[in-house]
Amino acid sequence: MELQALPSRICQVRRIVSAHLRYWHLDPLIDRAALGVTELLTNVHQHARPDKSCTVEIELLLDRLTVSVRDRDPRLPVAADIKDVAPLDTRGRGLAMVAALSESWGARPDGDEGKVVWFTLPALVEAKPQRGRAPQRTAAEQPTPRFTEVEPVACVPAVAHAPARSAVVG
After folding, report:
1. Alpha-helical runs (H) found in the chain
2. Which of 66, 93, 125, 169 stands the most exposed, by the fewest C-beta atoms within 10 Å?
3. The whole model's pTM is what?
4. Angle of CA points 43, 20, 101, to nearest 5°
5. Which pLDDT tens digit goes with each residue over 69-101?
6. Cα separations (Å) of 51 from 5, 114, 130, 138?
7. Angle CA(73)–CA(79)–CA(84) in degrees, nearest 5?
8. Cα–Cα distance between 29 and 86 in angstroms, integer?
9. What are phi and psi of 149, to 5 degrees?
10. What pLDDT digit, counting tens, does each position of 88-147 carry?
11. Longest C-alpha distance within the chain, in Å?
């Protein structure tokens, strides 16, 4: 998706990335992917020249999710050494966070006038049973049915119910 890396748009992109990951059933990756794309877009907003236009791509291949941001500023980012960032500084930790949350990350030139900054997350997610449903068993794991004799239950007379009515007029 193409956008201007403005604070209001960054929030929208975070929601779009989260929705795609939910659609792909990669819910455990949502927080890390949303944080990573937020950091990359914030860097475009703060540092990219001549404009703030960029393209965000998410790609799922086999067991790896790749999130990339392409902008028109050819300067490659340099991750600050976290030891050099003062405790109260509000800048300088973004790429260190991306490195910490991702499997790998990097930047590469994109033609003469731009770059791509990317990170990857492992997309192998163990399937968890849904709430309220028992886990499915294979045929070999099915318990042997046991039948017991039970006494017949006397029939209970049917209760007359009022006819069903709709709450919709007409």
Report:
1. 7-23, 30-47, 94-101
2. 169
3. 0.67
4. 45
5. 999 888 888 766 666 655 655 565 677 778 888
6. 9, 11, 45, 57
7. 130
8. 30
9. -80, 135
10. 555 656 777 788 888 998 999 988 789 999 999 998 755 454 555 555 555 555 555 444
11. 86
